[in-house]
Amino acid sequence: MRTGFKILISLLISVATFIGLIYLSVSGYESLIETKLYQPAIVKQISNNLSKISSETNKWHKKNKEVFSEILREKSIKSSFLQKQEKTLIEERDKLLKDLTAKTSGLMGLCVVEDKTRKIHFSTKKEHILNKSKTLLSYKKYNKANEEIALKYIASQADQKVKITADDNVFIYAFPFYDNYNVCRGTAVFYVSKVGLLNFLSAKKIIALSDDINLISDDNHKLLGVLTGLPSIMTQDLKREILN
Known about the structure:
Elements: H1 3-26, H2 30-72, H3 75-78, H4 87-103, E1 107-113, E2 120-123, E3 129-132, E4 137-139, E5 163-166, E6 170-178, E7 184-193, H5 194-203, E8 213-217, E9 223-228, H6 235-243
Antiparallel strand pairs: 1-2, 1-7, 3-4, 5-6, 6-7, 8-9
């Protein structure tokens, strides 16, 4: 069969199919078209996209946990609980965390806190600083103004797995913190904005930057999931539906 004839037959089939769909539509079979043709395709596309988002999000969390765990093994970080700290260790720690922030999209800071006393031994968050001078740096008690997630939701005991919670569209990674003598002294908390995940998924071409994402968590700050494709104003309504 000649190529030109094949093309003509294909064109006739396409036209006939199109006319058939129009006929079904005007004959009152819109629901048939929507249910049997359009809806399954749309549902399948959405389902595939959600699977990709879930898979890539898990990879993103895994990578973050690996990077953060590695940082916490550094001597300059482990020395955070020491009363007197060498200048070289302080400078090394500052450089490590500056480099980490530059490499980790959305990273907002690190806080090392003693669970029993809520004493902050080290933090890169400005709101945690009580006094700062050339020779002195002191911190407030953790959550002194009750403006942060309560420590009971993130405190991580020895040998516990990393906790990933959420608060105000911020991922919170909580690790057991070990000092230079390998004694668990409290909790190391990494704060990562939702923007970090948004940038990651956008780079993978799974969602667009304009899609935005919102984190959904329960009253205990347990992360329930990530919402995308809806305005943030609708997140609370959907959260109520999920919790109910």
